[in-house]
Backbone:
């Protein structure tokens, strides 16, 4: 079989496939989360799915992915309704509503979980793994559920590709042209919740929120295109899923959730620093270059003001180096201009503009003022 | 003192010491910052533990409090970047630090009282086993005294600077016009919050700590309109939920105490919510 080529066992192959699928789905959906600025919602749904999982277990007394997913889905939705009711109908701010809901649901979940653990049931073992995730229990039949959810998610995103693109970038316009924005939002929420509840088995209720933020934040730094952002985000998701699971499979003490999140967030931080489009480093270099360009233009225009001292015979103007009132203008800028042949040092404190420099500076003035009269 | 009384006292003290600063968090609306803070202290504790090699060293407290402040600072800075909004920045940072902390715990904390599970669920029942022996006499559980010290520190600060805190909470711009430095006060306040969280997190767990901190003040806010009344109400609610939750958990024997306290708090909150909405509807009719 194909996994034998890579020297990994059948179990590990299943687990890697599972975490790659979860990484892919969370990566794709995180784009919508981050662009919609709803990242806290992920925290809420994920943390609130814990009581649902435990209640589903108490009702059926067996560890079945499907019933757990349904239980988690119901309690996640209850939590969203809770948050909306509190923030709409009371004086409490939305942030407080989220904090209160999250801790109430998680508290109830922990209370139920610790109660279940005390019951004399063999099946309850490993339920605690839903907090940080576990890969040891992933079976082949769990992959079918994952595959079904993937198909559903991809169907939703691809069939409403244009609609969601419009909603993400101009919600008001989408509403005006008559798109059913609320219904589409609801569909997306369902897709996200379903993904969260199948993902918690591997990543855990605490950490999965990170998978709904990190890949998209990372991807945003590399591109401005919606399609590319989704592709990059999905790759970041798959990459962190696979790497994290490998770490967790080799060092048995480490649960997969934290390992996956460390990878995903690290990739996001690296992207924030070095991203090609919006990374801090690129931004810094760009800002620096722009400032330098503006500084050069300022000096040139300052020269131009003193063209009455034009010395025709040498083709040079004269300007005392007394630009102290402009903090950024210094000898370095004059040196740069001199290198381009726009001006020339006469003494340490004096410099002069060449005729070519005057032409260039006139162009700047035209650009800046929009009228040629000022040059004359 | 027997174990029952000691645990009851500890639960009451922990509830109150968390609820008091929680009032200001609820009013400012930055409860998620405290959420990020409580998750990140684990990393600080583990780093300090790896350096010192002792889980009871006061340096751990310092390490954790410093990490907490670093997180608050980092969240504020990262969110000034374009293309990263504040929610995403908060989530990224706290989950990164928390995941690192959990990895450190699972690698190096075996054989100590900290475990991956206890970090999340807490373990109040362990409190009476760690005793403070002062010159031969048994003074009771260490954590009780530590929490008492934190209580004195935090309520002392909030009482002495009650005017400043009120001003900064409700109108930070006006406060800075008056010559107070909101940033300075906020940092001190956040340090107090992180010291409090660090002290009690082993009893209540990093997630439930936030619940104990903000649910009683949120309920109190729903039934009062004045800062003084709100703080008093939140203290009463937290004491009530603490005692009742502890009693139920004691009876049921196997349910984690902190989570039971949260369950009672949730019920109180729901009652407060209905009271609040009936009040609002009543006013609208008149």
Residues:
């Amino acid at each position: 079989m194909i996994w034998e080529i890579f020297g990994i066992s059948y179990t590990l192959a299943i687990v890697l496939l599972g975490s790659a699928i979860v990484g892919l789905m969370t990566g794709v959906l995180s784009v919508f989360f981050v662009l919609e600025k709803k990242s806290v919602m992920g925290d809420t749904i994920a943390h609130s799915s814990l009581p649902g999982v435990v209640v589903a277990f108490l009702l059926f007394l067996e560890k079945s992915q499907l019933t757990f997913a349904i239980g988690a889905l119901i309690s996640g939705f209850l939590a969203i309704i809770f948050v909306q009711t509190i923030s709409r109908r009371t004086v409490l701010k939305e942030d407080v509503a989220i904090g209160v809901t999250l801790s109430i649901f998680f508290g109830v979940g922990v209370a139920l979980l610790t109660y279940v653990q005390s019951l004399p049931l063999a099946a309850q073992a490993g339920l605690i793994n839903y907090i940080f995730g576990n890969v040891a229990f992933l079976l082949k039949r769990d992959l079918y559920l994952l595959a079904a959810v993937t198909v559903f998610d991809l169907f939703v995103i691809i069939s409403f590709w244009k609609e969601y693109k419009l909603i993400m970038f101009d919600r008001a316009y989408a509403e005006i042209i008559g798109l059913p924005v609320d219904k589409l939002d609801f569909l997306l929420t369902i897709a996200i919740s379903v993904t969260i509840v199948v993902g918690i088995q591997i990543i855990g209720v605490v950490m999965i929120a990170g998978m709904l933020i990190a890949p998209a934040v990372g991807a945003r730094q590399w591109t401005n295109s919606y399609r590319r952002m989704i592709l990059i985000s999905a790759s970041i998701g798959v990459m962190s899923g696979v790497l994290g699971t490998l770490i967790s499979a080799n060092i048995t003490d480490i649960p997969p959730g934290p390992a996956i999140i460390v990878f995903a967030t690290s990739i996001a931080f690296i992207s924030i620093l070095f991203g090609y489009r919006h990374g801090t480093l690129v931004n810094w270099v760009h800002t620096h270059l722009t400032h330098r360009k503006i500084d050069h233009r300022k000096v040139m225009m300052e020269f131009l003001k003193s063209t009455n001292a034009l010395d025709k015979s040498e083709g040079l103007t004269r300007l005392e180096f007394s630009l102290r009132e402009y903090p950024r203008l210094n000898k370095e800028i004059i040196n740069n201009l001199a290198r381009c042949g726009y001006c020339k040092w006469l003494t340490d404190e004096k410099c002069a503009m060449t005729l070519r420099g005057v032409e260039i500076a006139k162009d700047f003035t035209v650009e800046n003022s929009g009228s040629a009269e000022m040059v004359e | 003192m027997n174990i029952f009384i000691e645990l009851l006292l500890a639960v009451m003290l922990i509830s109150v010491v968390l609820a008091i600063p929680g009032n200001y968090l609820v009013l400012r609306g930055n409860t998620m910052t405290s959420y990020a803070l409580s998750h990140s202290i684990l990393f600080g504790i583990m780093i300090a533990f790896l350096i010192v090699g002792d889980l009871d060293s006061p340096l751990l407290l310092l390490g954790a409090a410093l990490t907490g402040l670093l997180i608050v600072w980092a969240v504020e800075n990262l969110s000034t970047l374009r293309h990263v909004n504040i929610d995403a920045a908060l989530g990224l940072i706290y989950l990164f630090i928390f995941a690192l902390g959990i990895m450190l715990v699972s690698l190096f904390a075996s054989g100590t009282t900290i475990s991956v599970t206890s970090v999340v669920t807490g373990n109040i029942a362990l409190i009476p086993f760690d005793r403070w022996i002062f010159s031969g006499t048994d003074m009771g559980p260490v954590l009780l005294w530590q929490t008492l010290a934190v209580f004195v520190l935090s309520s002392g600060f909030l009482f002495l600077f009650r005017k400043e805190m009120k001003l900064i909470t409700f109108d930070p711009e006006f406060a800075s016009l008056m010559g107070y430095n909101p940033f300075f006060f906020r940092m001190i306040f956040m340090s107090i919050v992180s010291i409090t969280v660090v002290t009690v997190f082993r009893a209540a767990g990093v997630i439930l700590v936030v619940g104990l901190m903000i649910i009683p003040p949120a309920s109190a806010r729903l039934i009062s309109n004045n800062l003084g009344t709100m703080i008093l109400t939140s203290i009463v609610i937290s004491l009530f939920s603490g005692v009742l939750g502890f009693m139920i958990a004691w009876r049921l024997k196997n349910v984690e105490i902190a989570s039971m306290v949260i369950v009672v708090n949730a019920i109180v909150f729901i009652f407060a919510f209905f009271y609040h909405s009936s009040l609002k509807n009543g006013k609208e009719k008149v």
